[in-house]
Each structure stands twice: as C-alpha cells, then as structure tokens.
Amino acid sequence: MVRRDSRLGFLGGAHVFPGGALDEGDYAASMLELVGGSERVAELVRLHCEDARARGLLVAAARELFEEAGILLARDQRGDWIDLDDASDRARRLLAARAELSAGGGDFAEVLRGEGLSLDVGELRFFAHWITPEREKKRFDTRFFLVRAPERQSATHCAVESTAGEWLAPGEALARYRAREIELVPPTIASLDRLTAFSSVDAALAAFDGCDVPSILPKILLGNEDVTILYPGDDDYESGVVGRPDGQRLNRLVLRDGLWDRP
Fold first, then answer.
1. Total number of domains in the chain
2. Which of 17, 124, 151, 236 is the most exposed, having the fewest neighbouring CB atoms within 10 Å of its CB?
3. Is 152 left (phi over 0), alpha (psi -120 to 50) or beta?
4. 149 with 253, same domain?
C-alpha cells in the first residue's frame, strides 16, 4: 500500500492501493500490440465494459503499478520476468523511465518497446468494481485487481503523489486502522476485509479466477449521530432507509467516533 501525500485534495494522507486513471494511451493500438496474456484473463466482458476498454484497464493497472510502486509486469524476449534489482543498465533505464512517467511525462509503450519488453497482464485477477455514490460531486468508476508480484523487483513508492509505501497483510492494515495509526477509506476497508478470508496469495488468486464480480454502488445515509454506508446484500439497501439491525442481513459500514466499523 502507498500513503498519499497529505497535501493532495483527494484521499490526502490515506493508505491506498497503487492505482490511477485510465489514459487513452492504455488502449491505443501501439500499446495493445505489446500486451500479452490478456486472453488468459477469463472473459474480459466481466470487467463490465467493451473489449477494447477492458484491455486498456488491464494496461492501466499494470502501468499505475509500475509508476506508483515500481513493480513492472513485463517479460523479456526469453519470456522471463524483468529483473529490476540487478543494477544493470536496463534496470537503471527502466527506473529512470518510471520516475518520468510518475511525474506525468514519457510514453509507457515506447519504454517497453525500446527495451524489447512485452507487458504480461495474464496474472491479473479482477477483484472488485466500485462506483462512487450518486450524491458525491466527484465520482469514480474503479476496478481493483490482484496480482502476484514478480521476484527480483523491490516495491518502492513514487515520492510524487505518495510519501510512503509498505507491504501490509490485510488483517494488519485493518488493525492499524482501528488503532488510528493509518487512515483508510471505505472501499479500501471493504477490500481488505474481503482479503482477510484468504491465508495465501495462491488462495486469493484462485478465488477470483473467472468468478463473477458485482458492481458496487454504495448508498450513503446521514443520521443524527452517525453516517451509514449501505452495500448490496444489506436488507436496507433497496429502500435506502436504515432500520433496526435486529435479525437483518447487514452489509454496511458505520462511522463511529471517527472510524468506519462493520457491524
């Protein structure tokens, strides 16, 4: 996870997963010709959009992972994952290109083409799809992916939009949030909570290999003393009115004393 710079207007100071916006270049023909493995991502239509945009989303996830965490899902001409820890001239060029991309410059496709690399998105697993509630002024339509980090690549935050980066087990991140040591936002809390069900990377990747992933459009309700976010599956979701929780199916977060809690 990376900690966003507290000076940023959006999610400033929060711990988040590496990510960002879909760029036109992510689904340009010049980019997609360098992409391998998309046929191994079961049913691109599951990404809830047309094929070309779905392939672009896979590229965007890989590109943002490289920019924000320094992890590059690329293979060389022998089919091996690229080594960024070997202090070679190529590794130094790629890390320099990463810094340029993080600062808003450069061309990801040209970086890959210049080093004879192909982007391998075949290990990405579509994990979650979040849509910002309708009442919010600034809205996002965001997809989350899981992937195993290649060996011989050390994750580092970009120091542009983020001020720290660290590996955290899902349960550890939630415990640190409850201890008020880090800040988390509801989609991240829900994603981490879901991942606590798995004891290994293998188990998590297997669980989301080809499964149906629903689009989640939360409903935010303001009460006299608290704020409640309802998710599909909660008995009060359709009505949008929070009733007594006794005997009900609950799928919600409630803001209490400054922390989001899942009752």
1. 2
2. 151
3. left
4. no
- Residue 142 is which amino acid? T
Provide the token pair at 246. Answer: 């006794």
- Same domain for 244 and 174, yes or no, is no
The DSSP string of 97-166 is HHHHHHTT-S-HHHHHHHTT-EEE-TT-EEEEEEE--TT-SS--EEEEEE-PPPSS------SSSEEEE-
The pLDDT profile of the chain, 263 residues, written as one tens digit per residue, is 999 876 766 667 889 999 989 999 999 999 999 998 776 655 565 677 777 788 899 999 999 999 999 999 999 999 999 999 998 999 999 999 999 998 888 899 999 999 999 999 989 998 999 998 887 777 888 999 999 999 999 999 887 777 889 999 999 999 999 999 999 999 999 999 999 999 999 999 999 988 888 899 999 998 777 899 999 999 999 998 888 778 889 999 999 889 999 88
